[in-house]
Fold this sequence. Notes:
The structure holds two protein chains of two kinds. Chain A is mostly beta strands. Chain A is built from no helices and eleven strands.
Amino acid sequence: NAGVTQTPKFQVLKTGQSMTLQCAQDMNHEYMSWYRQDPGMGLRLIHYSVGAGITDQGEVPNGYNVSRSTTEDFPLRLLSAAPSQTSVYFCASSRGGGAYEQYFGPGTRLTVT
Amino acid sequence: AQTVTQSQPEMSVQEAETVTLSCTYDTSENNYYLFWYKQPPSRQMILVIRQEAYKQQNATENRFSVNFQKAAKSFSLKISDSQLGDTAMYFCAFADTGANSKLTFGKGITLSVRP
């Protein structure tokens, strides 16, 4: 099993550009989520999904879109990148909600200039 | 909304010694889950230990154990016989019960193990 994979590992964007961070898992987990990690802020939940076709907002959803067309994939879209979105982004999956062990991807370091 | 507080930003410990990382949380729920996650320099997040609030017994995983004080809303992590590989950032996290429960993280603490 590859677990949770994320691409790309690093990305530099200019302000106003859009892009999609990819996340995939091969553990047949229903629950998937996206977090951003900023220095001194811990991990903050952006969006999450409890199954294909179902998504909901987390703590910091503004500027991000998600969709879940399959159990395996949960892409995160930045609509119009801003310097405030410079961060490390983590995708995670689990067999249930946050009460279960989360399996994290390796992260994507995004810089917006 | 639940909050998780880790008030110590950094700690250091000598190899082979014991260290305790502190965490407090706030919730009005009676049943919930608490976690410690580890993030080494590789950036990969991994689960260290999980505690269910309705269980009186403190969770242990090899050299890692917790001191769960429900009334005080305190959840500290004790690392015994510290090893160089324990050098990492440690995050305390809270989740309520339910299929759609969300995980709330503290700000983390950077632990350095000195040789």
